[in-house]
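Q: What would this complex look like in 3D?
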Amino acid sequence: MAERELNFGEALNEAMRQEMQRDPKVVIMGEDVAGGADVDHLEGDEAWGGVLGVTKGLVKEFGRERVIDTPISESGFIGAAVGAAATGLRPIAEMMFVGFMGVCFDQLLNQGAKLRYMFGGKAKVPLVIRTICGGGYRAAAQHSQVLHSLFTHIPGLKTVVPSTPYDAKGLLISAIRDDDLVIFFEDITFGGIKGAVPEEDYSIPFGKADVKRAGEDVTIVAIGKMVHHSLAAATELEKQDKSAEVIDPRTLSPFDEDTVLASVEKTGRLVIADESHPRCNVATDIAAMVADKGFDYLNAPIKMVSAPHTPVPFSPPLEDHYLPNPQKISEAALGLF
Amino acid sequence: MDIPKDKLLWIYERMQLIRVFETRVSTEFGKGKIPGFVHLYAGEEAVAVGICANLTDADYMTSTHRGHGHCVAKGVDVRGMMAELFGKATGICKGKGGSMHIADMDKGMLGANGIVGGGPPLACGSGLTAKTNGTDQVTICFFGDGASEQGTLHESLNLAAIWKLPIIFVAENNGYAESTPAHYHCSVENIADRAAAYNMPGVTLDGNDLFAVYEAAHEAVARARAGQGPSLLECKTYRHYGHFEGDAQTYKIAGENERYQNELDPIKRFTDAVLSRGLVSEAEMADIDGQVNAAIDEAVKFAEDSPFPEVQETFTDVYVSY
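A: Here is my prediction, written as structure tokens for the whole assembly.
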């Protein structure tokens, strides 16, 4: 029998549904996560189920006490999620777009990320914040950002960037069961991505990279959407007789250094594809790590493919120019030979 | 409202414990024993104690940068607090938080907070937990007059109101946001007047009158426990010290400190009231004074004698560290 396939959002939805069935402490909160709160004619049904429909159907199964529509008060509800997590619930908060984190940054940076440490280990903040990221949707500068590097920099946060429906479900289940504050990034262009997803619940450990394609000549470490672009680049490289290994770290904090170093030891070449702006991002961080710990493995300079140091432009030709793509990645790889 | 005698004794003991704690912190800070900076609560004791006299350990509290008094009123151990201020391994947070981050989850004390306006959203969270779990726990959200101008407070008042959360928002209006007077920074004369905008009861009180605070809190706590939602209490009070230790307080009006430290002092007013009404005897109070002084002496000695944390402690209590 063929394996069941789900799209990215359905995989996330199933993860939340199964975890809410398993643990009554899991609640969802955010803007329009159900939608239509207090509208009589909906009779408890949702209006939206999330802006991209990822939380569809959950309010019907779990009720409005556990799928909580919030006002457009990001500091208020993210802080409330932190406080609820510190006192025993396990909230999944939805921050519609990662750019909106700017509105509530204190509650993440100075509250959620720091409570456990400041309190000498006596508090924990088992909170997942799901958020949409990424360009390519013609959504312009405030709704297209890739800010995983910003959050990876902050101790007390874990950062997760899934690239497939299978990983999305397993990583979200891990995130919900994790006692730390996890920022979970969902690329806005992943709606159409389908893949095999087991029906039973399963978890994927944090800090364990996945080799999405094995190869011998060049290592491509790719994050989020860049995984798909790098797989396309690898197909192109194959035509040039170059075998690329594509590694998806899946979690950026914690980060699986061993898998990357073992691959570079084998291939001697490294390209890192990250849709972030080019400085102080996860790509520069991985490059520094390999230069430090794997310098002797390298037969060529480390190449990074990232977006430019500009806000994300709106106009389609500009955004297409802005975004990394398979061609940019394969050209960077070929330049190493 | 009659307050039972054992509670009156507890109230006096807690107010004195805060006063002596803060006085001693000022001394030890002056000697260079306490790293960083401290914001002292002395002068505002009737607020923290009058509110907390209505709580149990199961109730929650969020606090401020001026949090020592809230901690003591909620029953946090003064030895662990003092050791925390000294940065010692025996501190309540293992020396990792310091003055502005004292927390004690076992007492429902969700942390002092170094960010003005940082606490109210967290209070909505513990309120949501209690509501979701169907318990009768309430959350006290202390904030100063400075925080009343932060957007987080306004978001939180609205959230608490629409979700009917069991929260008592307590504005400690001590007249100054750092060096800036409330009559300049605040658009209304009384912060509690803003409660109307959030459809909740708002009461402005003499925060140096223990009995007034106790009674108002009693009513607000009962309302919250009964599932009737949040309240906003504004306690007008005064800090005897500056914003931080070392503040020259040039913004205060001549004679103001003296007036608040004498005829308007909350402990003196409480003492006069209970003695004149014969509710507590001078001997009983003297007895408490002796115990309080001994407890603070012991706390300072404990803090001084305790070791600093091992440097490896830098890497603990955070899930990913390197």
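A: To summarize the key features: The first helix of chain A runs from residue 8 to 22. Chain A has two domains: 5-196, 210-334.
Q: Very helpful, thank you.
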